[in-house]
Structures are given as structure tokens and as C-alpha cells.
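Entry 14. Structure prediction run on the chain below.
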Amino acid sequence: MKKRYFLPVLAFLFCLTAFSQTATIRGIVLDENQTPVPGTNISFGTDGDITNSNGFFQIEIPANQEITITFSYVGFKNITQTFNLSPNADIEFNPVFKIGTEQLGTVVINSNRRREREQGIVTISPEAMRKIPGAQAGVENLLKSLPGVNNNNELSTNYNVRGGNFDDNLVYVNEIEVYRPFLIRSGQQEGFSFVNSDLTQSVSFSAGGFQAKYGDKLASVLDISYRRPTGFGASVNASLLGATASVEGVSKNGRLTAITGFRYRNNGLLVSSRQTESNINPIFADAQTFITYKFSNKFQLDFLGNIAINDYDFEPLNRQTNFGTLSDPVTLLILFDGQEEDKYETYFGALKATHLVNENLTLKLIGSAYQSQEQEFFDILAQYRLGVPNNNIGDENLGDVEFTQAAGGQLRSARNLLDALFINLEHKGEYIKGEDQIDWGIKYTHEDIRDQLREFEIVDSAGFSIRPQLPDFANDQPYNPFDGPIEPFTSIRARNDVQIDRVSGYAQYTKRTDWGTNEVSFNVGVRAHQWSVSGEGLETSTQAVFSPRAQFSIKPEWNEDMVFRLSGGVYQQPPLYRELRNPTGDVVPDVKAQKSIHAVVGHDWSFNMWGGQFKLVNEAFYKDLTDVNTFTLENVRIRYRANNNATARIYGFESRLNGEFVPGTDSWISVGFLRAEENLDNRGFIARPTDQRFKAAFLFQDYIPTVPSARLYLNMVYQTGLPGGTPSNVDPYDFEDLPRLRDFFRADLGISYVFADDKKQFAKGHWLHPFKELTAGFEIYNIFDKLNSITNTFVRDASSGQQFAVPNFLTPRVFNVRVSMKL
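Output returned:
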């Protein structure tokens, strides 16, 4: 009997399963500005749904059937799409509504997202990252046009925010923290940043007052999400500076998606245009991949991997720098001998498991490993002379040095090696019920750093080696022979084997509600962080800190669309290895976390003007810092004093207006005022190395109305000068009166022609038919050929002991050609 009924029952269950099999479609409905459209109607057959407040939807349709789905919203043209999916397929579909108006298609700042307005977050379009011109195109290029984000070095992807330094910023890719190399000392040694624009789906940035879930840094957070492909695609971008390529695809059942990007860059075009003549070969290459496998509608596994190699060979030949004034000109002439060979190799891998327990609860487990192997080898002899140039216009010897004011030599040598391994394991949770949300997380990090420092500098004049300290030193040659040892002017010799173990966690609560007729949102949270420093020859040091934070926003029921924000809290930054290392290379394990009490007041106003949408954002901020770990800044290398002997205060005001200055485009103007001061050992406040008082930036996009395929992009930044800096290992108060660097002004222009895009598709057989996008054009960096400087080189006149601050100038006007295509 069992056998007789077994086969019919099995057949019945098989048929029941087959007929009940479904497929899943999910995505975000967007408008032409890449803004999510909440409340979109979705209909298919007799069923339907609507998108949530973030424009997201997820629906199930019968498998192995042609199902037509219609997306509709008042004011937009309906979108109709037919699907025929296999059982258990899971695909992503992001429809974009059209309104029939010619659009440029590159929206930089999205001004309508609710999260942005409540939290003071700026959202940047990945398309803008790829199209806006810059010597270092990418997300950092656009960040530097926002108020409060500064870096006077177009060759560097580093940036400082509101008076902080490069180490004060958090960077996440798919919720995984990423790091930057340790030994990079100049912008020309850098290649790309970690973030690959070709793989990016969304970019969010906060310049301060961010939530507890984002981490333990003092300045900012950059949150990047790489995209999950919805089908096959490929792209190639090529220019005189290098090339990038990406390929993406989806498995037949839609459960496996992968996107991989390759990048190559050679900075020779930019570096060779500088004042130092050299033989140089700066090469950077990397490969990144983001893979997702969805085991079910409730569980998926992501993998993010990266391998990057930076090979920098530099042989300087000579340099001539003219500075001073018309009435008192000075020229520095240098002849070099020697070379520099640097290598930076980084390896990164991360796994993230996401489990949707139910419609309210999401759990995540993230594991990652990062290794950086860095080498910095150089021996460079610089023989220099400072003199007065001939400034008689029309003289055949114009510019030649006629009187030598100082002469000398400098030998710099280094054999620096570093191997850093970071291992992270983290759990995150999110519970959402109506307008209430609870987030929590806990993270363990192990850092293992092996570091060797071997550096010295010899300063010489007329054959005499100058010593750093002279009180007990006498040299009366040639009357009496000098028989003392030859000692370098500066010398750093250290070998460090350091392990740092960290446990950190956070919990926060978010609530959205009504206060009378007003919309209100608030967030409260706290972070805790405990770390322990140990290592060879070190006494173990363990410390812990707590960081409470809060945000509040209100949208009054007014005719004008305005939001007011207040955020702040206690932000504490436990030291990374670089902050533990003092100027002599020794590790100080008991360095404290830098502490900042931070308050931000913001105003957000969205309005219509000139027939387009605009948004004005104003923010005022104040930071009160204690236990400050002071530093010197040499180009992009930060050297800490590791002594927590200072306090600081940073305050300012920022304003940004963005919108459709030209119909169908998005541009913006930013203005920022800032003051950053620090007080060392209660000796009085002096300017921090990042005290940049005023900034104005203008990003403009345009097209010819009669020829909309011709596009123009202009990225322009003006910033007042930074403090002139100080030589290494000196008292900064002795250089307080040193003139500031000259003001920074730079404009980059891009002009391109679009042969094909989503609005210009061609019939089969046409040579442009295979291209989803094809663009070609040229770029002019620093179109006004402005001489900008990033730091001073301090040249010593050994006979008098006087030091001259010689500006290091950046790149002049440079032309580049670019071609971009998508298949």
C-alpha cells in the first residue's frame, strides 16, 4: 500500500511545488535626477504594490511565465517591462521615470533624500565622479569642491575636513572600513584612492556631527556602496594618464552577481610638468571585485577584494624655483644626484553575511583582512645655492643668478620598511518597526605592525657637516684639525614590533514622528572603544573611551520647504599606529585618544527658482578639542609628536547652493569660513597646520541647447593660504610669524561630445549600436596656469644659520584627452 500511494503523492507534491514556484524582483524606482520615488504604483495582473519611503520595492511573480509589470506615478510616463524568470530567480531592476525634458544626465548632489536632510548628509552621483574633470578624478575630486573639505594638492586623494588632518576621516565601502598607506610622503607618490568610481552605486558624505554607528574619528565619514549588477555590462575609460576597465554580470537564475574593475595610472604627465626636472616612472595598478551570492530571499553573502600595487621610481636632475617679490626676488638652484625607489602593495579581502530574519530585523556578520607592505628607499644629494636673479626685462641674462647669497648641500637617505596586518570581525544589527529604528554593533580588530625606520639628513656648507645642536661644539678649522665624529643633522633609527587589540561597539535609537503639524526626527546613540597596545620592548597599555552622540531635526509645516538640524556629541579618536609614533620613530603606547566636543547647527531650504529646483544648505560648527596629538605636515606626510600636550578649537560657517543654474543640469557654489587654532602646553593659541580660513568652490555643468550632446564641466576652487609650516623637530612657536603660503586657486575644464547614451541609441547595423555610452573629449587642468604651492622647503645657510622657506609649487597647465565607453 505504501508503494502504491508513494508515487502519486510524490507526483502531486512535485506538481504543487512546480505550480507554486515564484521569482523575486526588487529594486529602487528613480526619477531622472536619480532620486528615489516613494509611493510609486506597481501593478502586474491582478496584483500590485507600492514603493516605500526610500523608493524600494520587492515583489514575487510566477516563474516560467511572461509577466508584464507597470510602474506609474503622477507626472511621469508609465514604465512597462515584461519578465519571464526561472523558478527562484532573484533579480534587481531599477526603473527610471522620464519626463520628456532634455537632461544632461549627470546629477551631482541629490537634494531630496530624507536621510540627507535629517542627518546633514551630502549624496554624490557616481556619474559625476566619472565625468567632472580633475588631476585625480573620483570621489575625492568632488569632495574637495564642498565647503569644509580641503587639500591644496591636486596630485593627492587625501583630504582634511573642518580643520582636521588626513587621519581624522572614516571611509567605508559596503560597510567595511578601508585604510590608506602609512609611508606616503608626497602627492606624486600616490595613485588612485581605494574607491573605484566604475563600481560605485552610491556615495554619502558627512562633514561632522555623524551618528554613533559610523565609528571613532574626529572629522568626517565617507560611506560608499558598490552596486549589484542587473545584467551584463562592460566599460572602458582611457586618457593620457592611464585607463580603467570594468566588467559585470549576473548568473542565469539571478542569484550570483559579480562586478570587477581594473585600473592603471601613470602620473608622469603631471609630475614631469613640475619645476623639478627628473626621470620618473610613477605607476599604479589595482584590481577590485565585488561578488554577491543570494542563497535565498533572506540570506546573502558578499565578497569584496582588492589588490593594489604602487611602484614609484624617481631620479631628480635639477630644479630652479623663483620666489620672493619683484623688489626682492630670490632664486633657488639645485643639482641632484641619486634616486628614490618606493613600493606600496596592499591586499584586502572581506566577507559580509546578511540575514533578513523578518521584515523588521536584519543581522550582519563582517570579516575582513588588510595587509600593506611598504618600502621607501632613497639616497638623494642636493647641491644648492640661493641667489639674486637678474630681473632686468630685456637683458639677455634675464633670470640668471648674478649673486650667490648662500650655498650648501643636503644628503637625505632612507631605508624604511613597514608591514601592517589588520584583521576585523564585526556584527551589526538593525531593527525597524514603523518609524522607530534601533541599530547596534560590536567589532574586534587586531593590528600587527612591523616597522623599520632608517633615515638621516646631512646638511653641509663649504665642506663642513652642520650639526643639529651647537652649544658644546666648536670648529675652528683650518687653524686646528677637527677630530670629532661626523654626525648627521637629523637621524631617525627605530625598529618597532607593535600589536594593537581593539574592541568597540555602538547602540543607537532613531525615531521619526510628528510634533503638532511639524515633522520631527531624532537620533541618540553611544559608542565605546577599548584598546590595548603591546609589543617588543613596550609596556602594555590599555585604555577605554565612551562617545555619546545625538541628532535632532524638525521640518516645520510652512509654505517654504525647510529643515532645521542640531547635532553633536563627544567624538574620541583612539590612536592608530601612526599616531603612536613620535618624531624619533619610537612608539609611545600610552598616547590618549584625542577628544572633541562637537556641535553643528544646520538649515536646509529647498525651493524653485528660474524654472528649476534649488537647495541652500547652511551649517555652523564648533569643536573643542582636548588631549590633542599635535603634528607637522610635510606635503601629505603627517608626523605626530605623540604627547597629547595641546588643546584646540575649531569653528566656522559653511554654505552651499546647488540646483539647475542651466535647465536639466545640476551645479553648485560652496563658501566656507574656518578658524583652527591649537595651544601647546598653555603657551597660547597658534594656527594649526590645517588652518585654512576661507574657501569658495564652483562646479558648473552646461550643454549647448541646440546640440545637447556637447557637454562642458568646470571645477573651480579658491582657498586662502595655509600656514607656512615648520622644519622637523623644531618649536612651532618660533615659526609663528612665518608668512602663509600663497592663496590656492585652481580651475579644471572638461569638454566632451556624447556620441551615444541612454537618450541616443542607434539601430542594429549602425557602428554605434553596441555602445550604451560613448563619449570623447579633452580636459585642461589648471586652465589659468596658476602657480600653487603645497609646502615650503627649508633651505639652510650654514654660515649664518638662517633658514629660507622656499615654496614647493604644484603642476602648471596640463592638457589631457579622454575617451569613455560602456557596452
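The longest helix spans residues 2-20.
Filed with the rest of this week's runs.
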